[in-house]
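hiii, so i know i said id send this last week but things got crazy w the move. better late than never?? heres the sequnce for the chain we talked about at the cafe, plus the structure i predicted for it. fair warning i was half asleep when i ran it
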Amino acid sequence: MKKNYVLVLSSVALLTLVTPPELNVLANPGSDLIYSSAQQTAAKSLVEKEVSAAPGYTSAELQNLLDYNKDGKYKLTIHIPAGSYILTKELRIYSNTTIIADTEATIYKNHQKGSFIANDLSNDQGGYTTSENITIMGGVWDSSPIADKFKGTEAFRFIHATNVTVKNAEICNVPVNSHLITFAGIKNGLIENCKLHGYDGEKPKEAIQLDIVHDSVVVPSNQSKIIKYDDLPCDGVVIRGNEIYDYPRAIGSHTSIKGVFHKNITITGNTLHDLTEAGIKAYNYENLEISKNNIYRVGVGILAYTYISNESNHYLEALSTTVKEPLPENYNIKITDNTISDTTKSTSSVITSWGDGIRVIGNYQRPINGITIVNNTMKNIKRYGVFMEKAPGSNILDNTISDTVSTGIYMINGCDTATVQNNTLENLGSAGGSAGGIGLLNSNNAVINKNTITNPAKNGIYLSNASSSCSITSNMLYSSGGNAIAAYTNSDNANIYGNYISGYSVNGIYAYDTNSADISQNEIYGNDANSTVKDGIHIQGIKDIDNAFSLKNNYISYTSRYGIYVNANNSLIETNTVTNSMKYSIYLDSNSIGSKLFDNKIDNSIWQN
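okay and structure toks below
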């Protein structure tokens, strides 16, 4: 039976999120889209048209409705009422078109070639304006009829477009190697309040993928023969309020192009759970906000990186026509107010689940500068709470991290000038293990200030592998399974000032194979006179060179061996107070030639070997 179309013509603008054809920008990454008066005037010049499908419409019949806007004459709205629809062909959507599907409308995908729906690229010239002002709202878009097939494609795919919105939709059950939504070369996109789930396969893919329009391998399409590949990234995409689960990765990218960066991306207020690899995987993003997401039961909560070990397959040469940008001096990545819990750790031939809460990775050729990690809560983490490599100038502030298998915050290989401040860390590793509170390896000039660390398996705060000129100040450390504060292997010139230490198992402050430190104004308490703690402060300098240790105004009480032990030449030990030491209050060993003691208050003896 022939079905009737319902047409409504009006000169009044529809109150839907459809926007004019000119480019626009985000007022800020977390805001709604803002348009100029010129854009609003352009929108009013289009004639409005509303059409409705009938339950059970075929692909051809739905395409007929979309084709009303094939020539771009209308500001078109298509209503899809409650009912079931089976698509046997990809739908093409044109500029200035809105689809509003009923919450009880279920659209099934029963074809392997092409997406559910993709923007029309028949006049593609590259850039962001091939398609403009496209909105899809509502409906259940279900690929389960072909989900068990080895081959398939994305549910939604948009390329070279401006002002694309997907909202209030459920999109699910794609075949292996497929995404639920692909944005490639999209300016001002919005994915909001959607439920995304269901992937049949192990090979890691993103439910929402942000891609660069590089070639038919990186961005395949049913229309690939007419796409102008131009290395166009995404700019100004907001992903908020979505629930994503039962997938390898929720949001992000696993390929990048040299000299090309996704920019102005906001990922906020999403619930991401039951993901075999990553909640968010951001590869070469600039001006990125990740905020207020609830992430749990994932392989890694948040991964931001410029380097990956197998990057020959993922970090590709730009096209010859691409104008490459220099590496950013500041990537401006803000990771704030997220909750991450119950990570998993496993390594297989297909999926790598690091187990970290937040993981930030650069390398010496492409350091990832400008990372801010603030006010996140991480619990039950199977490896590090925060792991960072080659991320200089980072700020890690006001985070709460508990119940980790490895160190709470661990920064390695060039995380210079980092600030780690006001974090609360508790229950880090299991008794007898190597987990610590805050650790630096081969990273200089860091500031570790006003953190509270309770019950680390080993060291509370530690510097290693030539982490020099770091300041460890005003921290509170309780019940460390090893040393409360430690500096190892040429981690020279540390400033260890004003810390409160209680209940450590080995030494309160420990320096080994280093040649200098300023250790002053610290309060150090062992458990009691019968505890197993060794020394309040233990200094093992580098032999046969001029060391420069200064120990001033420290208060040390209850140690099972020495209050202060020094085996370093030319040390200054001045105005310290040492009480309740089981052996000597101050012990100078054989390599303490030229060391000086002034005005120390002790209730036991001083021994010089």
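btw The CA atoms of residues 261 and 285 lie 6 Å apart. thought thatd interest u
miss u guys!!
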